[in-house]
């Protein structure tokens, strides 16, 4: 690693390296003009996907390689998951060009020098990319550990040695994102280490919660701080305590890939509550939505139609609605969402958690 200078900034980032498979052969087969046109589309696509998932990309390395950074220039606790999600979106996405990518992802501490990340973790991502199979995402053990709750991984038992790394640790192939379950991000079964410290912060959370329970009035609390200091871990422990006490705690997950998608965190929350991954049939999904709303005291067909439309159910499977302007439908959809939440709160206290609230879209905000 390069020697550190006084003004250097050291932080943990996740790097994604990607490269085209057999690009030289492609150039000879396609000819310079068509290759150049397809290459421009490839460059634009990679930059767009990485940006949509909260990352930044360097200028292309040669014609066909990219190094991309997540958690930079703004630190993010979810940078590993963002990088893996971007990698899966890229893998196989160039089929229309008849091109394939190799993708490697590694997480580690780097030095930020003159605005550029430098360090062995950057090289590690590049080495992972070099041994990955076409259209697969190969990740380091650290990246896998940080994102295992969100993705399904397969151990790679026959990976060749990585040049320059005597022991790179276990390697993993990212297969897909886990189905969204009814449980939230930090399940009470999670095998995280015992929670210690943060007594003052935990006491503040408990006091606000008790004030809401005693008064019946809403309470709001913003938990802010630098990435990596344990905000999510604190919230996980607080939520665990609420569930043990028999209370309800719901989580809305925000992220850069959905910061421009209206109400996406709420849509994801509803889908987890409905456990729609178990129900591919639209009619069964509509029936489960009816049951969910009825359990919160919403038995009107308009709420089923409005929230069913928000969740993407086919119109033919939903109760009819009168003709509404887009703005009026938005207002009534918001009212139906609030009605559902208020119905839950009428039956008992509810804690609504927004994780990574800085990525909230305007409609949810």
Write up this protein.
- 41% of the residues lie in helices and 18% in strands.
- By secondary structure, the protein is α+β, with helices and mostly antiparallel strands.
- It has two domains: 9-177, Nucleotide cyclase, GGDEF domain (Alpha-Beta Plaits); 199-359, no CATH class.
- The strands form two sheets. Strands 1, 2, 3, 4, 5, 6, 7 and 8 form an eight-stranded mixed β-sheet that branches.
- A hairpin with a 2-residue loop joins strand 4 and strand 5.
- Helix 2 packs antiparallel against helix 3 (79-90) and helix 10 packs across helix 11.
- The longest helix is centred in the last third of the chain and has 22 residues, at 326-347.
- It is globular, with a radius of gyration of 23 Å.
Helix content: 40-55%
Class by SSE composition: alpha+beta
Distance between the termini: 43 Å
Q: What is the fold-level CATH name, i.e. the topology of the largest domain?
A: Alpha-Beta Plaits
Ranges with pLDDT <50 over ≥5 residues?
Answer: 1-6, 181-192
Order of helices and strands: EHHEEHEEHEHEEHHEHHHHE
As for the number of domains, it is 2
Global morphology = globular
Tell me which CATH architecture of the largest domain applies here. 2-Layer Sandwich
- CATH homology group of the largest domain: Nucleotide cyclase, GGDEF domain
- Strand proportion, as a percent range, falls in 15-25%
> Rg to the nearest angstrom?
23 Å
Can you give the mean pLDDT?
83
| CATH hierarchy class name of the largest domain | Alpha Beta
Total helical elements: 11
The largest sheet, given as strand count, sense and whether it forms a barrel, is: 8 strands, mixed
Count of extended strands: 10
């Amino acid at each position: 690693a390069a020697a550190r200078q006084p003004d250097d900034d050291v932080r943990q980032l996740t790097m994604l390296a990607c490269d085209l498979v057999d690009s030289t052969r492609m150039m000879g087969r396609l000819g310079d003009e068509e290759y150049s046109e397809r290459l421009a589309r490839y460059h634009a696509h990679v930059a767009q996907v990485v940006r949509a998932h909260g990352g930044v990309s360097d200028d292309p390395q040669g014609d066909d390689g990219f190094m991309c950074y997540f958690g930079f220039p703004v630190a993010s606790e979810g940078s590993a998951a963002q990088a893996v999600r971007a990698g899966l979106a890229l893998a196989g996405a160039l089929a229309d060009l008849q091109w394939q990518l190799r993708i490697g992802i590694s997480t580690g501490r780097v030095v930020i020098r003159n605005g550029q990340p430098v360090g062995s973790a950057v090289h590690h991502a590049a080495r992972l990319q070099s041994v990955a199979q076409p259209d697969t995402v190969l990740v380091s053990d650290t990246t896998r550990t940080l994102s295992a709750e969100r993705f399904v991984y397969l151990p790679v038992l026959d990976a060749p040695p990585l040049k320059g790394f005597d022991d790179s640790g276990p390697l993993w192939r990212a297969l897909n994102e886990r189905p969204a379950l009814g449980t939230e991000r930090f399940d009470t079964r999670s095998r995280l280490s015992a929670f210690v410290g943060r007594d003052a912060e935990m006491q503040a959370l408990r006091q606000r919660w008790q004030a809401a329970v005693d008064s019946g009035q809403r309470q709001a609390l913003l938990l802010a701080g630098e990435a990596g200091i344990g905000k999510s871990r604190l919230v996980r422990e607080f939520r665990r305590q609420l569930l043990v006490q028999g209370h309800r705690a719901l989580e809305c997950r925000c992220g850069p890939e959905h910061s421009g998608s209206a109400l996406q965190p709420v849509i994801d929350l509803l889908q987890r509550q409905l456990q729609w991954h178990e129900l591919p049939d639209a009619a069964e999904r509509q029936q489960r939505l009816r049951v969910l709303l009825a359990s919160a005291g919403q038995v009107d067909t308009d709420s089923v139609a409005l929230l069913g439309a928000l969740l993407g159910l086919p119109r033919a499977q939903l109760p009819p609605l009168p003709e509404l302007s887009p703005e009026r439908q938005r207002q009534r959809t918001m009212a139906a969402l609030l009605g559902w939440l208020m119905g839950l709160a009428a039956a008992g206290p509810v804690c609504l958690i927004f994780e990574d609230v800085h990525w909230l879209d305007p409609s949810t905000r």
